[in-house]
Amino acid sequence: MTFRLTVLGTATPYPRPGNPCSGYLLRTEHTAVWVDAGPGTLAELQRHHRPDLLDAVWISHTHADHAADLLPYYYALLFADQQPRAPIPLYGPPGLADRLETFLEGAAPNPAAAAFDVHELHDGHRADIGDLTLTSRAVHHGLPAFGLRATHHDTTFAYSGDTGPCPALDDLATGADLVLCEADGAGPHHCTPEDAAAAARGARRLLLTHVGHTLSTAEAAERAHAPVARPGETFTIR
């Protein structure tokens, strides 16, 4: 199996019929990583991979449209038919575990560690997951947020997370075989299609995602001269 990206959802800031919020699956022959867990993506993930057999989950930031499905995932791992061998490695921004536990609070404590082996990201954080190397870079989104560079042998995938233009985004994209970049286009902490194209100028291929409600996908694609990711699509990274 080659290095592949499967699009689980791209919608922002809330899921639409047929399109969950941000979520993606990275896979090689031996490794599977869920990247961002927006509302609706846990259901779509199950079309492609067993959630309890994931090698890791990586979360770019704590906005709900990128992280909310960690909550039902917690219950799936602990109280349903999923049977993980051990807590699932979860990589995310500082404070992610506390935020989860606040939402999960009930009659008894629900520690995030019961389901997840939590690792807090920092700029330059590196993790070797199976045959993937995940490198995280702090990006500009108005709160702790990270972009991702995932390498499999000599093939590299880059993901912006949510960010405005910044040097870290350029660094993530440089030399990548495929760059998945947001094009929300609204406000100072997001990219326009032109920003995405500029960030990816040193990469082989650009794929847009997270297109904002003020843009049509056709307009975004035309402005960036790049295709827009659609839910259910799978791309060979190289």
TrEMBL record:
Which regions form coiled coils?
none
Q: From the UniProt annotation, give the residues forming the signal peptide.
A: none
The record's listing under SMART domains reads: Lactamase_B
- In this chain the Metallo-beta-lactamase domain maps to 20-210
Q: Which SUPFAM superfamilies does UniProt cross-reference here?
A: Metallo-hydrolase/oxidoreductase
Tree of life domain: Bacteria
The cross-references to Pfam families, in alphabetical order and at most eight, read: Lactamase_B_2
A Gene Ontology MF term for this entry? 3'-tRNA processing endoribonuclease activity
What is this protein called in UniProt?
A: Ribonuclease BN (tRNA processing enzyme)
Organism lineage string: Bacteria, Bacillati, Actinomycetota, Actinomycetes, Pseudonocardiales
